[in-house]
Design brief:
By secondary structure, the protein is mainly alpha-helical. The chain has helices spanning 24-27, 48-59, 62-74, 79-92, 94-107, 111-119, 125-157, 166-186, 188-213, 219-223, 235-249, 253-256, 258-261, 267-277, 279-300, 307-312, 317-350, 357-371, 373-379, 389-394, 396-402, 405-418, 440-459, 463-467, 469-485, and strands at 2-3, 10-14, 17-22, 489-492, 496-499.
Length: 500
């Protein structure tokens, strides 16, 4: 953000970027603060390797480790089919990730501000709050994994800590949460440094674990393990169901990727960084999960699909400490970038003058803890419940995330087809302007696929629409938006009028 004395804001082109020359008309707006203002060119310091490290750090986490098992157990795929599906899904999800990163890189704006173009300044809060709630749920789950790892680490290092039992896990939960929030509150540079330093370390440890586990099993036999679907069943139905689920794994990040691409040095950096960092890392770490789960019986005497508990069973305090530190770093790097940054910005979008970056991060922590409160109270023995973290992970969160598919289609169509890669930067922040209020085209395009998804979930009709939710939702949302928005006349770019 730069300032001027004229009172009127303007967009200034610097190479391939735009900066905001902020006047009183924007700085005094109720929908502006310094934290969601466009980044200056000097702040756009993330290279291809920083962005690749971001994705490596986010991909190496406990849920990725379990993906192979999810596809074989619940989607009827063989081990080989499951791993190929994971690789293909992450190639597919690169498309919306790269496309939605473009406006963030060009204009330096975060996800909520970009949504103002297609949903309106006030209307953007609808998809923002849905996205924020999903992230808070994932934040709570990942923080629980991190808290368990801290508990196991302290149990190994501190005499008597293990006797605390589940109460130690609750303490670990809040310690882990505090570390997460501290890194985010410190700003984008702290996130960049953490991801860049942790990525090679996490890769090295993952390779080491693969080398440790591989001699315990026959990889060839493992890859030839048959699928558990009926012999007469068609492969394609199971494959596309699994593919949709795996695309949905990063579906939320494909929306708020501008939160990170606004710091990229160039479009080339964000494109190459994502291509290098995402598909192969997801494939490798999911493969590690399959191999370690298969080898766990020979290693510890029983089959364990959770890496935290598996490593905690190793009869070597030294390696338990090393492994728990690595899991803490891995979960921290994933949670901070994937589940705290977005809701922090999303909450700010509601009332930027009252909710700044720090308050947005604290709200994320509060909602994350609230969504996990039943599990925390269960660990403390206050309540008794059969609902598990795994049920939350595999149940409502994945289904809820599918509701965001239409937003991806709307964002891509709005920026590339309707606005033709031109946005009026100052107007995105004004209370009264061309993007103010609610954009009916965006809200209608969002509501129709969501309504069909809810019908499919509650009645069983149109089950195919939900089964392939990310694809059907994003395609229908984009199509409806194109038809509705094409009838509108919008002001774009640096005073360029475009009639549609």
């Amino acid at each position: 953000m730069t300032g001027n004395t004229t009172g009127t804001s303007s967009a200034v082109k610097v190479g391939e970027f735009y900066e905001l020359n902020t006047g009183e008309d924007v700085s005094g707006s109720a929908h502006y603060n310094e934290d969601i203002a466009p980044t200056q060119v000097k702040e756009r310091t993330w290279s291809v390797w920083n962005i690749a490290a971001l994705w490596i750090g986010m991909s190496i986490c406990v849920p990725t480790y379990t993906l192979g098992g999810v596809l074989t157990a619940y989607f009827g795929l063989s081990v080989t089919e499951a791993l190929i599906t994971i690789l293909l899904a992450n190639v597919v999800v690169l498309v919306p990730l790269i496309l939605n990163a473009f406006p963030g890189t060009k204009y330096g704006i975060p996800f909520p501000v970009l949504l103002r173009s297609s949903f309106g300044v006030l209307g953007s809060n609808v998809p923002c709050l849905i996205r924020a709630l999903v992230a808070c749920g994932w934040f709570g789950i990942q923080t629980m994994f991190g808290g368990i790892a801290i508990h196991i680490l302290f149990s190994t290092l501190i005499p008597g800590w293990a006797a605390m039992g589940s109460s130690g896990e609750v303490i670990g939960f809040f310690l882990f949460m505090a570390i997460n929030l501290y890194i985010v509150i410190k700003g984008s540079e702290s996130i960049k440094i953490m991801e860049t330093l942790s990525a090679p370390l996490l890769l090295a440890v993952s390779i080491g674990l693969m080398m440790w586990a591989t001699p315990q099993i026959s990889v060839t036999e493992l890859l030839l393990t048959p699928a558990n679907r009926p012999a007469e069943a068609s492969f394609w139905g199971y494959f596309f169901g699994g593919l949709t689920a795996m695309v949905g794994f990063w579906a939320t990040l494909s929306l708020n990727i501008p939160d990170f691409s606004r710091f990229a040095k160039s479009q080339k950096d964000q494109i190459m960084g994502q291509i290098i960092g995402l598909p192969l890392t997801m494939f490798f770490f999911a493969s590690l999960g399959v191999v370690l789960t298969a080898a766990s019986f020979n290693l510890v005497g029983e089959t364990i699909s959770d890496p935290v508990n598996l490593i905690g069973r190793i009869d070597s305090p030294f390696w338990v400490v090393i492994a728990m530190i690595m899991i803490i770093i891995a979960t921290l790097s994933t949670n901070t970038a994937a589940n705290v940054v977005s809701p922090t910005n999303d909450f700010q979008n509601i009332a930027p003058k009252k909710i700044n970056h720090t308050r947005g991060a604290l709200l994320t922590g509060a909602f994350g803890a609230l969504l996990m409160s039943w599990e925390l109270l269960k660990k403390l023995g206050v309540i008794h419940s059969d609902v598990s973290v795994e049920a939350m992970y595999s149940g409502w969160l994945l289904g809820y995330s599918s509701l965001l598919g239409p937003v991806a289609g709307i964002m891509i169509v709005d920026y590339f087809l309707i606005k033709r890669q031109f946005l009026n930067l100052p107007e995105l922040y004004k209370t009264q302007g061309i993007y103010s209020g609610f954009n009916s085209a965006g809200l209608i395009a969002f509501a129709i696929p969501v309504a069909l998804t809810l019908v499919a979930i509650t009645t069983g009709a149109l089950s195919w629409f939900y089964d392939y939710g990310w694809f059907t939702g994003s395609l229908l949302g984009g199509l409806v938006y194109y038809v509705a928005a094409s009838k509108q006349t919008v002001m774009v770019g640096d005073g360029i009028a475009q009639s549609n």
